[in-house]
């Protein structure tokens, strides 16, 4: 094998390796379909490799709507935490929302705030919400907690990006292929 041909083969192999390493992120949408089947106060929700739980220390719970997730501004269940079940990082991309004031905070401290009563709209998060390990959603308590009318917010169609993880078998096969190419080139030289 001539040196130029050997270099071409190595470039092709390297291109394949980079293609595997640079695979695009998978997009997952949390739709909360059938969440109401768990009753009005489920302890948690899991879907597409993600979980949503309440961080309220006194036995928090979620509020379910028809195929959507509700949160209120009073004590008892908030904040809600979105995270991957396997603990890996993800990107919090967009969601449909309507309701009162809401705040979304990532583990890195990035915040996204929705103020005032919002009609149903799709919100897109800034790049600060990429490569996070969790997102907390809460609603600030308006005024005195003794107020009988808490604010409510509803979220649905939450779009997440998941970075692909290379399979160990693919990496091993690539290494074996490169080793074989080097061995063949060496034998042909001698």
UniProtKB/TrEMBL annotation:
Keyword Electron transport: no
Location of the Ice-binding protein C-terminal domain: 164-188
Mitochondrion recorded as keyword: no
Top-level lineage group: Bacteria
Pfam families registered for this protein in UniProt: PEP-CTERM
InterPro entries membership: Ice-binding_C
Signal peptide start and end residues: 1-25
Keywords in alphabetical order: Signal
Protein name, as recorded: PEP-CTERM sorting domain-containing protein
UniProt source species: Massilia norwichensis
Lineage summary: Bacteria, Pseudomonadati, Pseudomonadota, Betaproteobacteria, Burkholderiales
């Amino acid at each position: 094998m001539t040196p130029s041909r050997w270099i071409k083969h190595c470039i092709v192999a390297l291109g394949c390796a980079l293609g595997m390493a640079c695979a695009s992120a998978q997009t997952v949408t949390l739709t909360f379909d059938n969440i109401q089947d768990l009753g009005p106060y489920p302890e948690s929700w899991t879907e597409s490799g993600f979980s949503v739980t309440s961080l309220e220390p006194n036995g928090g719970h979620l509020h379910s709507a028809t195929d959507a997730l509700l949160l209120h501004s009073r004590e008892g269940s908030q904040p809600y935490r979105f995270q991957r079940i396997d603990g890996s990082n993800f990107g919090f991309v967009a969601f449909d929302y309507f309701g009162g004031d809401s705040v979304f905070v990532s583990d890195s401290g990035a915040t996204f705030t929705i103020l005032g009563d919002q009609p149903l709209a799709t919100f897109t998060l800034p790049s600060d919400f990429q490569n996070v390990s969790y997102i907390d959603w809460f609603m600030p308590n308006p005024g005195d907690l003794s107020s009988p009318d808490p604010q409510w917010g509803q979220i649905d169609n939450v779009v997440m990006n998941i970075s692909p993880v290379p399979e160990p078998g693919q990496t091993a096969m690539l290494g074996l292929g490169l080793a074989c190419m080097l061995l063949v080139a060496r034998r042909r030289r001698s």
